[in-house]
Automatic annotation (TrEMBL), chain A:
<feature type="transmembrane region" description="Helical">
    <location>
        <begin position="77"/>
        <end position="93"/>
    </location>
</feature>
<dbReference type="InterPro" id="IPR005562">
    <property type="entry name" value="SpoVA"/>
</dbReference>
<dbReference type="Pfam" id="PF03862">
    <property type="entry name" value="SpoVAC_SpoVAEB"/>
</dbReference>
<protein>
    <submittedName>
        <fullName>Stage V sporulation protein AC</fullName>
    </submittedName>
</protein>
<keyword id="KW-0472">Membrane</keyword>
<dbReference type="InterPro" id="IPR014203">
    <property type="entry name" value="Spore_V_AC"/>
</dbReference>
<feature type="transmembrane region" description="Helical">
    <location>
        <begin position="138"/>
        <end position="160"/>
    </location>
</feature>
<keyword id="KW-0812">Transmembrane</keyword>
<feature type="transmembrane region" description="Helical">
    <location>
        <begin position="36"/>
        <end position="57"/>
    </location>
</feature>
Automatic annotation (TrEMBL), chain B:
<feature type="transmembrane region" description="Helical">
    <location>
        <begin position="84"/>
        <end position="113"/>
    </location>
</feature>
<keyword id="KW-0812">Transmembrane</keyword>
<dbReference type="InterPro" id="IPR014204">
    <property type="entry name" value="Spore_V_AE"/>
</dbReference>
<dbReference type="Pfam" id="PF03862">
    <property type="entry name" value="SpoVAC_SpoVAEB"/>
</dbReference>
<keyword id="KW-0472">Membrane</keyword>
<keyword id="KW-1133">Transmembrane helix</keyword>
<dbReference type="InterPro" id="IPR005562">
    <property type="entry name" value="SpoVA"/>
</dbReference>
<feature type="transmembrane region" description="Helical">
    <location>
        <begin position="6"/>
        <end position="25"/>
    </location>
</feature>
<protein>
    <submittedName>
        <fullName>Stage V sporulation protein AE</fullName>
    </submittedName>
</protein>
Length: 170, 117
């Protein structure tokens, strides 16, 4: 009995002596198997559905206010963001997100969801230090890299001439 | 009916790209979103994003890539109109609707909603 438990004791030490490389292989082998295909299908269905709803909103703006497709893009995004914040407030969006993965994260509604959920979650820390300081915790990187990339594009066009750019009046 | 089909297919396809970046390339959501925004900016810079918007409608304007597209649009339109300073002053001119709406609605939600758990 004593021998057996001693043997078990030495055995349980083994994982500790693993190198980090061995540990990564060990952890990888025990990761729950997630099918990339199923995840992609879910992302496609939910992402497509969100964009189809957006198309409905866009068609509404185009017919009701006589806008072109490109002009209607902006108010459409604003409405989609409002819907996303309402669903986040009700706790529905996070449930969809668990199922849909990138399907609910990649549309602009996911951007709004990250801001709204951070704002709600940190409300207890105060309006300034909680809501204000945490709202952009995830969305901030999107804005930073988007703006820096656009600045670089702008500088390149400034150096080489704006004439090469496509028509902006659209 | 066709605008809805193309919005669904193109929007869904962009989300699949995001899912592959999550699962196969193993990027974090923040890295994935940043990469997609930069991709949208670059696609607009070479002039490919506007044709996609004409073709797919909300399938191209609702995914986060359109945020990069809109930032570049603002910067370049202003660059055309007022010169080099426009690169800085114009970046947010088009995206104001999205960013402002997200800030205002999120703030109001935080005032009204009680966090769960």
């Amino acid at each position: 009995m004593a021998v057996k438990s001693a043997g078990r004791g030495t055995k349980s030490y083994k994982p500790v002596s693993m190198s980090s490389k061995e540990y990564q292989a060990f952890a990888k082998a025990r990761e729950p198997a997630r099918s990339v295909w199923t995840n992609c299908l879910k992302a496609f269905l939910v992402g497509g559905l969100i964009c189809a709803i957006g198309q409905g909103v866009q068609q509404f703006f185009m017919s009701a206010f006589d806008m072109s497709a490109r002009e209607a893009g902006n108010p459409t995004v604003a409405i989609m963001i409002l819907l996303s914040v309402i669903l986040t407030s009700l706790g529905v969006y996070d449930k969809i997100a668990q199922w849909a993965g990138a399907g609910s994260a990649v549309p602009v509604t996911g951007f709004a969801n990250s801001m709204a959920s951070a704002a709600i979650e940190h409300r207890s820390e105060g309006l300034v230090l909680g809501v204000g300081a945490n709202m952009f915790k995830l969305a901030g990187s999107v804005i930073v890299f988007g703006v820096v990339a656009s600045f670089v594009v702008g500088i390149i066009y400034w150096i080489f001439g704006i004439g090469a750019w496509h028509d902006t009046s659209g | 009916m066709m605008p809805y089909v193309w919005a669904f297919v193109v929007g869904g396809a962009i989300c699949v790209v995001g899912q592959i970046l999550f699962d196969v390339v193993k990027l974090t959501p923040a890295h994935t979103m940043s990469l997609l925004v930069v991709t949208g900016a670059v696609l607009d810079a070479v002039g490919w994003y506007d044709p996609l918007v004409d073709f797919a409608g909300a399938g191209a304007t609702v995914p986060i890539t359109s945020f990069g597209n809109a930032l570049v649009h603002g910067a370049l339109t202003e660059l055309q109109e007022v010169g080099w300073i426009g690169v800085i002053t114009g970046i947010f001119s088009v995206t104001s609707a999205g960013v402002s709406a997200a800030i205002v609605f999120s703030f109001l939600a935080a005032l009204v909603v009680k966090p769960k758990g």
